[in-house]
Every structure is written in C-alpha cells, then in structure tokens.
Task: inverse folding
C-alpha cells in the first residue's frame, strides 16, 4: 500500500477575478444597506443575510485539495470530503467553453458541481484551476474533473495504480 499524498489547489485568474468582484459587490451592498437609515430593519437584516449566504454557502462546497491513495481520490471540502474510486486510467483534459453548467458554480471559489461539455458529456467538477484538469472515471462510470496543483505528479501516482 502506497502512502497517502496531498495535492493542494490553486485558483486560476478567472476564479480570482470572479471571487473578488462578487465579494466587492456583495460587500458594497451590505455596507449600503447597513448605513441606509430609511429602510426598515427587517428588510436590512433580510438582505444582508441573503448576501452573506450568497458569499458563504458556495465556499462550503469548494475544493480545498485532494488526497490520493492508490486509486482513491478524496476531495477535501468544508462541507465534507468526497471520495472517488477511480476505475480507469486518468486523462489530462483541456477546458472548453463548449458546454455549460447544469447545477454548479462557474467561478466563485472555483468550478464545482455538474457541468456538461462537448466531448465528455455530463461531468462532476471539483476544480479551482481550468489549466490543471484531470478527467477521471469511477466504478459507476461517473466522470469527474479535478485540478491538483502538481498535475504531472498526480497523474504519475494515479497511473501507477493501473499498471499491470
């Protein structure tokens, strides 16, 4: 049994820009509603609560790193870890804009949720960097995209599992 390896995530430029803009806008609106004396207190509290939820709930599902042990990938998230038992050799995959989000975050803290892309179909994405994508498939033929910081090392360790 090989030892468990941790692979951190890094944000690509789009995630940095989108996250900064959303925080800036939400922060501005929160300050605006706090210092608006004319609006009722209930309305201010409700709107501020909504903005806080918009900022914090997606953070719970954002990938924070990956543990790799043999053919098991553990996606670290605040809400709870996700385990992927890889059943086929992984592939490097290049991000394409020929697709869309079905139920996902497309830039705020990363890319996570259910996407559909030309060439691979429906895929569950747990990534923070569109330039470091690895496509894996589990025992149920569910496809996943992950984005470990050191893709070459990640692929090397994962490919060793499939050497016969």
Result:
């Amino acid at each position: 049994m090989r030892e468990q390896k941790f692979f951190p995530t890094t944000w690509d430029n789009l995630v940095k820009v989108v996250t900064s803009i959303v925080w800036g806008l939400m922060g501005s609106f929160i300050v605006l509603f706090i210092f608006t004396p004319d609006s009722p207190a209930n309305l201010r509290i409700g709107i501020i609560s909504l903005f806080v939820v918009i900022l914090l709930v997606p953070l719970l599902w954002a990938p924070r790193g990956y543990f790799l042990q043999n053919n098991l990938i553990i996606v670290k998230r605040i809400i709870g870890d996700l385990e992927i038992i890889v059943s086929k050799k992984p592939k490097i995959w290049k991000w394409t804009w020929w697709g869309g989000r079905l139920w996902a975050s497309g830039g705020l803290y990363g890319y996570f949720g259910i996407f559909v892309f030309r060439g691979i179909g429906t895929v569950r994405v747990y990534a923070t960097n569109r330039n470091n994508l690895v496509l894996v498939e589990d025992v149920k033929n569910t496809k996943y995209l992950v984005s470990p910081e050191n893709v070459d090392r990640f692929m090397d360790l994962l490919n060793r599992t499939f050497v016969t």
Remarks:
- The longest strand covers residues 99-106.
- The mean pLDDT is 89.
- The beta strands are 5-8, 65-69, 72-76, 82-85, 91-92, 99-106, 111-117, 121-127, 134-137, 143-146.
